[in-house]
Amino acid sequence: MPSAKVEKWLPLSTSDFHILLSLVSAEAHGYAIMREVSERTGGRMRIGPGTLYGAIKRMVAEGLIAEVGDRTDPKVDPERRRYYRLTPLGRRVAAAEAGRLAELVCVATTKKLISAEGLKLRGAHS
Amino acid sequence: MTRCCLAVRSSVVVYRALLLIYPSSFTQEFGDPMVRAYQDLVEDAASQRGLLGLARTWPGVVVDLLLSALAQHWDNGWGRISRWAVAGFILGVPALVFWLSVFFDIVVGSELARRALDVQSTISPAGQASLWLGLPGLGLVAELFAARQDGRSALSLGGIGVNGFLVLAIVGAATLRVS
Q: Is A122 helix (H, G, I), strand (E, B) or coil?
């Protein structure tokens, strides 16, 4: 679906956005995604296996992510976990969602709800 | 086999059994990776915080199971699920979560288990019976009714398993205590 309009997927649910974010830098298996989301949010958000694979089923069907075929070396990973990667469409949707959130943060900063200094501090801590 | 290792293996077996509540098309495709992800989760929790860490994963995992199973059944157009089968789960599964948490807490000797047992000792025998058996008993009746009315769906069979297991475990524990 290379020409699909990304707006149709926006706004993404928080869990969907976190799952896509986990796949931006590298392909990953289910538990690696769960662990990264938990670590990134300092344990405030935990995705269970049911929610994760429900989202994976939907996002694979929509073409946002894809299963990676024959990724695992049996010597490295004898359990043969399933790995997933972001598709070009998934990357565009994730980028559009990030842009949408950035615009909101901009508005909040303009209205002095949060300070730019505070944002820098947060970025340094995370 | 250590206590922790045994608890991890038992948890994985129970988790695999609970996947019965999903539509079969979903578990055929994602059952194995879900069990694998769950096993990784409990192994990590047990290695970091022992049995208490493992016990603390259960409430969140059961809520995740229930909500995502309902979402999958919703996506499937509900199939042949009746309100009785859903009611049975709503009655039985929270009770199972609570007593499993207390059970794991007894194993690690926590404050929660001590308080639960303290509360129990202050209640009359009739009150105790309804506290222990009320929810899963009603859940079992609802699931049996659902299976009879609407045929044996995976959800009603899973509900009979969950509620029946709980009722048998409670009756068995009470019998042992009396004898």
A: helix
B47 touching chain A per CB within 8 A:
no
Distance in angstroms (rounded) separating the CA atoms of residues B127 and B120: 9
Q: How far is A49 from chain B, CA to nearest CA, in Å?
A: 5
**How many pairs of residues across A and B have Cβ atoms under 8 Å apart?**
58
Looking at 3.30.200.20, 1.10.10.10, 3.40.30.10, 3.40.50.720, the CATH number of the domain A11-122 comes to 1.10.10.10
CB neighbourhood size of A44 (10 A): 8
Residue B171 CB contacts under 8 Å (≥ 6 apart), including other chains: B133
pLDDT in tens, A13-57: 999 999 999 999 999 999 999 999 999 999 889 999 999 999 999
Distance of CA A69 to the CA centre of its chain: 20
**Count of residues for chain B?**
179
Residues of A in contact with B68 (CB under 8 A): 48, 50-51, 53-54
Nearest-CB residue to A53 (from B33, B41, B60) = B33
- Across the interface, whether the CB atoms of B33 and A82 are under 8 A apart is answered yes
> Which two three-digit tokens encode residue B92?
């039985």
Q: State the Cα–Cα distance between residues B133 and B123, nearest whole angstrom.
A: 14
Q: Domain residues of chain A, as ranges?
A: 11-122
pLDDT in tens, A51-97: 999 999 999 999 999 999 756 555 656 566 889 999 999 999 999 99
Nearest CA in chain A to B25: A57
Instruction: Give one word for B50, left, alpha or beta, with left for phi > 0 and alpha for psi -120 to 50.
Output: left
